[in-house]
Amino acid sequence: MRLIAGLFALLLLAHPVAAGATCDPPRCLDVVVPVPRHLRVPDSAVRVILPEGYRGARARYPVLYLLHGAGDTYRSWSENTDVQAFSADFRLIIVMPDGGKDAEAGFYSDWLDGSRQWETFHTRVMRKYVDRHFRTLRGRRHRAVAGLSMGGFGAMSYAGRHPRLFAVAASFSGALDTLFPAPAEPILHTLNILALGAWGDPVESEQVWRGHNPTDLAPKLRGTALFVATGNGTRGGPAGDIDGVPLAYATETVVGIMSQTFVAALDEADVPHTDDFYGAGYHGWPYWQRELHWALPQMMALIGSRRGR
Predict the structure, then answer these.
(1) Residue 20 has pLDDT above 70, yes or no
(2) Contacts of 113 by beta carbon, 8 Å cutoff, 6+ apart
(3) What span, in angstroms and rounded, lies between the C-alpha atoms of 177 and 261?
(4) CA–CA dist 137, 143 (Å, integer)
(5) Local structure of 205: helix, strand or coil
C-alpha cells in the first residue's frame, strides 16, 4: 500500500518553473463561477488571461480552455509557465478552470456515483458564463481546448464527447488511453489514480470507461484539428533533465505509450493529427511549457489571428 501511495504521488508530480511564472492584473484575474444547486463541484474557481488591450477595446476574441493535471489546480499553468507573457502576442482569451486535485482529481467527468459533475460544469455552466461575461467569439470555430497529463486526457475526451464545442484540441503528455495496459486492469485503476466513484470498476463499467477514453473516441474526433505532444521518458530531452525523481521519467514513458496508442487509433479511423513526439524528456513543467509554445501558434491560425505589431 505504501508503494502504491508513493507511485500515486510521483505520478502526479509537477515541477515548477520560476522564470516568467506570473499572474499579473489587469490581464490575469480569478473569477468564481456560480454553480447551480443540482451540480456537485468542489471548486468553481477559474483563472482567466485576457489579451493585451482588452479593457480598452470592443473586439471579441477566440477562447482557449487550458486544463491542468491531476496534481494541480486552476492556478498551476500561470504559476509554473510563462503562459501570460507568451500569450501577450495573441488576440486570445485563455480560461483555466479547476478540475480537482490528487485523490479528488476529477478526470474531467461526471462521476458515475453522482458525487462530481465536472464535465457538465465545464462544458455547459462555465462555458456559458465565459461567453456571457467576456467578449468571446462564440461558436465552435473560435474555441479550442488543451491540457497536460490528466488535462491532455480532458482535452481529447471533451473534444470527442462534445464534437460541436471545439474546433481544436491539444494534448501535452496526456493520458490518452485510459484502458492501458489492459482493459481489465488499467493503470489508472490498479494504482488508485482514478477514484472508483468516477467511472466504476473497469470490468463492470467497461462502457463507461470506453465512453471517456480518447483512444476509443478517436473516430468521433474527425473534423477537429488535433495536436499531440509527448516525450518517451528517456534522459537528454530538449528541455533538460531533472535528478532525484526517476518516476517523472517512468510516468512520461507510460503517457508516451498512451499517446502512441491514441494516434494509432486516429490513423485507423483516418483522422488527421499533428504530432510532436520529441523523444527524450520527463513528465514536468519545462516540457509542458515547451509544448504550449509549439502548439499555440498553430492553434491560433485555426481559431483566430496573431496580433500585428
Answers:
(1) no
(2) 197, 198, 200
(3) 7
(4) 8
(5) coil
Q: Give the integer Cα–Cα distance in Å for 26 and 56.
A: 11
Count of all residues that appear for the chain in the document:
309
d(CA 225, CA 58): 28
84 alpha carbon, distance to own chain's centre: 17
CA distances from 223 to 63, 145, 265 (A): 18, 14, 15
C-alpha cell, 296? 499555440
DSSP state of 121: I
How many Å apart are CA 287 and CA 46, to the nearest integer? 23
User: Bridge-partner residues for 93, per DSSP?
Assistant: 63
What single-letter amino acid sits at 148? L
- Give me the sheet containing 93-97, strands edge to edge: 28-32, 45-49, 93-97, 63-67, 143-148, 168-172, 225-231, 274-279
DSSP string covering 116-156: -BHHHIIIIIIHHHHHHHS-B--SGGGEEEEEETHHHHHHH
pTM attached to this predicted model: 0.94
List pLDDT tens digits, range 182-233.
999 999 998 888 988 999 999 999 999 999 999 999 999 999 999 999 999 9
3-state secondary structure of 25: coil
What's the grid cell of residue 14? 509537477
Q: Are 302 and 168 in contact (CB under 8 A)?
A: yes
For 187, how many CA atoms within 13 A lie in the half-sphere containing its CB? Answer: 16
CB 265 within 8 A of CB 282: no
By the 8 A CB rule, do 304 and 33 touch?
A: no
Cis omega (within 30 of 0) for bond into 36: no
For residue 225, list its beta bridge partners: 168
The label of the residue with cell 523523444 reads: 279
Domain ranges of the chain: 2-303
Grid cell of 132 as nine digits = 456571457
- Residue 261: CA count within 13 A, CB half-sphere: 21
Amino acid at 124: R
Which CATH architecture fits 2-303?
A: 3-Layer(aba) Sandwich (3.40)
